[in-house]
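Bug: token stream looks shifted between consecutive jobs. Job 1:
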Amino acid sequence: MTLYLDYTSPSIQYFDDVNRNRLFTKDQQNYINVLSTQTLNSLDNVSLLDIFMSQSNVVEPHYHQNAAELVYCASGSANVSFINPFTNQVSTYRVTPGQVANVPQGWWHWEVATEDNTHLIAIFNAPIPEVILASDILRLTPSNIMAHTYCLNEAQWRDTISPIQMSTFIGPPVNCYQGQVQGLANQQPQVYGYQLPYQQAPVPPQSGFGQGSPFAPGTYPQQPQGTFPQQQQGMYPQQQQGMYPQQQQGIFPQHW
């Protein structure tokens, strides 16, 4: 598909500093930067997430309803896992520097850092990658619906998910420790790749963006409830410089 942009316009942008486009911050070792047409309006059908994680941290289970995802490992290592909806099998791929794992559009997936200073670049074939997070599904689905549908004790279900108060993005939450978490980093992948030597990339400094920025911590742009965008082939909005949609907080799906 082709986007027709006015490359003579004075508002067209050809450069951006992804380090300034913070999507989510857990701490100084675990955060996500984003590049999309919202910050670089000359992009065509491509966007990316710049992901930094320390060992045993997890990009939470999620799926992208409008894009496939190519996960490239720049430094460190990670297990990239997904559920194949055609076979109902869980596959896990260990990626090290220079290696990639491909996640088709709409597939449920997650990533676990298997060592410190892991840097992943997630590349999408969409100008703005949309996402539905497990944390949003769990906390926003009414507890009585979950209990009735799956024959659960509603009070126990509410108590179990009560710590999930917002979109998680990278888990586990700060100040949370469970004995089984450390074992995730040592989980053996089902498919092995080549192990290559690498030079670790430095972690960029923290973004100076404060509250009110479209990508500041805690201000994740989201779609209002019940207004899931119907994507048509070749029909993507043209984002103007400095024009960010005003969206409601706390309702999925979200734009990354």
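Job 2, same session, no restart:
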Amino acid sequence: MKAIGYNTTGAAEVLEALEIDRPTPGPGDLLVEVKGISVNPVDVKLRALSAPDGGPKVLGFDAAGVVVDLGTEVTDFAIGDAVFYAGDVTRAGTNATFHAVDARIVGRKPETLDFVEAASLPLTAITAWEMLFDAFRLTEGAGEGQALLVIGGAGGVGSILIQLAKTLTGLTVIATASRPETQDWVRKMGADHVVDHRGDLVAQLADLNLTPSYVAALTATDMHWPAIIEAIAPRGQIALIDDPETLDMKAAKPKALSVHWEFMFTRSMFQTEDMTAQRDLLNRVAQMIDAGRLQSTLTEHAGVINVENLRAAHLRQESGRVIGKQVLGGW
């Protein structure tokens, strides 16, 4: 089957077209014919840092497609089902014509989105959902009178996090964005207020007379850390997804702050007992999309799935200027 992968770490040019064996689904797996994929920062990080082990490495996590085969223990899917999911960092990726995935982390594709649009959602929706309800331990409808600061609101995670917070909680959402087009985008996603992370965050929040109880630090956390510590409410909650080299954790002590790392692959990586939580939340997201309560975060269609287009999509990710999500579809 067709796939795109790499044999050595490096720049986007190391990605190459491959012909590899079609996978056989394990007992609890679905075999999915991949119709659409999206590109995430994790793809770029792994391509640069994660060396292949004994053969080419195929990346890709977000996917939408059609079930073409089932493992012997799968009972809640059927051949022909349209699905979407974010995969497992410990297994081969979705940049292939067929992909085997654990059925417990797969959701039903939104009926109102095509496969390419649907592929833009899973990884970021899971990440955002887990930040709100696992890391922050919010319950649906909670948060009235409190504020959430989303640093890097125009990216993929920020775009869906703003929407989920506005739709499922009572939080006031403050998003950071530095360019006119990104500021317009986060307002479109539903942000109540917009501040510029290139400026003085503390002063801008003071001007709004808002003290966030929750901070989603989605980018450059090491750079924004002092402002986060100063601006957040006592006993506030911070969740981050990036990889800062160092953070001054002692600075969080006077306010008794809680700091959480969010990593959406944890459940599948460690085969946790609650792995089906990701399936369930993806089904909720699909229902909300179909009901018009959430909107797609897709902004860039990078063309069909081939090595040239995937290289270009990786380069766009590296630019740090992607708004929302970029997708590819069809082989």
